[in-house]
Protein: FAD binding domain-containing protein
Amino acid sequence: MKPAAFDYVAPRTVAEAVDALGTGGRRAQVLAGGQSLILEMRLERIRPDLVVDINRIPALDELRVRDGTLRVGALVRHRAFESAHAVPGPLGALFARAVGNIAHPPIRARGTMVGSVAWAHPASEWCAIAVALDADVEMAGPRGARNLAAGDFFQGPLKTAGQPGELITSVRYPLLGDDTGVGFVEHRRTHFCFAQVAAAAALTARGGVISEARIGLVNCADRPLRAHAAEAALTGVEIGPPLDGYRLPENHPFARAGRIAAERDAAPVAEPYADLEYRGHAIAVVVARTLCQAASDQRSRARALEGESR
Structure:
């Protein structure tokens, strides 16, 4: 099937892209990696009047760390994060653990992190991480530039707070401290399916006690979520000895946090291969396993810091 006819422009600057989007109205679409957009156009579920190809704007192909913040430009591909060393510290490790779950190598070579955020699919790994870490979405539009917290940006399946004529130029993440451990666990029917449920976690601890927990939920509602109730249940909890997330006692704090995330934070819907009971159980299990992974990572980082201070 071929897409419906459309006009095409390839601007060289952000200002030119914004001007083009302004003339295209609500039926203009931005092309970066195109891994979702092109398929939807071929199936004619999306019929744009204008496609604005931003791949010739060098300013958007930038991965920069400055003042404790990582800025990911709109043209930075998924594969840029496959190495944990691409981004400093625990944030790079979290990205590396998450990115391997995104489709397969050809998709990761072309698709972009910011494009995934712009698409706002509930099963997107990047969207949930952005919400969990309080990332900022940076946009340029006819009325100038503006920033919006990721938690306010996502409004539903494929729905965002972006306005017609606006271009997402980057997403900014705060770097994670060296005393933070990270985890990411995903459950899906097959390797090439979207996640039925996934979770990202960042645990900061001092003296073996959790001082801050951040948990992002993937495909647990109509938008990415931060599991605030589960996070609150973990504050002040001891990290404890290493635990196998697949054999976690039911009374362990991580298991309780998983159940809280499923019962109080998530709002799943039934799917053809997963009813509500199954999905609730999967959320609880995946969150608990992710927390075990993050705790193990935190202990390793704490030992490394102790060794460096001696």
